[in-house]
Amino acid sequence: MHIDEITFAVTETLASLLEVDFGSLDIERSFHEMGVDSVLIVGLSAEFEDRFGISLDPELAYLHDTVSKVSQHLYGVINQGALGALGR
To answer: What is the pTM of this model?
Structure first.
């Protein structure tokens, strides 16, 4: 999966959870600055697990606190899993 697809999905998910326009989100702005609280952080992790079919630490958005950082992390996890599957 390409990084742009992942970034789009993360932005779309966050915009939906925050009930804001997709285009209004700054992917470099911290989740804290956007008003994301602990309940939404857990919700984000669950949404990403469902959407990408992977298991994530519920504190993902604390450890990677912007759309850009979460997308980069997910890109690594998703593509590492894909590469591992190819080697089997």
So the answer is: 0.84
